[in-house]
Amino acid sequence: MTIQPKGNAPNIFTEVEFDPSILSNLSESPGVYKLILYHSNGQVAPIPRFSCTDLEGVLYIGKTKNMKQRLRDMCDAFHNENSRHKHGSMEKFFRSRATQQTWGTDPTFRIKYLPMVGSEDQDWLEAKAIVKERCEIRQYWQRFGEVPPLNARMGDRLKD
Asked: For every residue of the chain, which 3-state class applies, written as one string?
């Protein structure tokens, strides 16, 4: 079964920088997002994968029940060293010597997000987000032979 957003909303991800100013324009609806890695010079950082290089720089594909809150937490994590919203896998990834040799010690990030829209209730919108996240992870897997680097513990989602 394919689930598509209703109405005029396109099935296209919007890309934004991690900046608290973006939050005022976001809805609190469920959604799917991708964390994108950039070099400090503003260029997308290609990520070597098993079958070829990910030229889009996708580090993570995730879903959320509340897009505004998730991005608020992520902005806090990136702009505040004492944040309680640190991502453990991300910290390990960026502390590794291989990562620092490849991308330097000061990479930047952007996020691509797709809110779930429609007149359905909250549970149905959350279900749409789960389906969309799984589709995005499967597409990544089919293209690169593995999940995004920070989704490494999520291979089981491909089995459903």
From this structure: CCCCCCCCCCCCCEEEECCHHHHHHCCCCCEEEEEEEECCCCCECCEECCCCEECCCEEEEEEECCHHHHHHHHHHHHHCCCCCCCCHHHHHHHHCHHHHHHHCCCCEEEEEEEECCCCCCHHHHHHHHHHHHHHHHHHHHHHHCCCCHHHHHHHHHHCC
**CATH number belonging to the domain at 14-158, selected among 3.40.1440, 4.10.1000, 3.40.50, 1.10.3470:** 3.40.1440
pLDDT digits (tens, 9 = 90+) for 61-114: 999 999 888 888 777 766 666 555 555 556 666 666 666 666 665 667 788 888
Task: Report the predicted TM-score, pTM, of the whole model to 2 decimal places.
Answer: 0.78
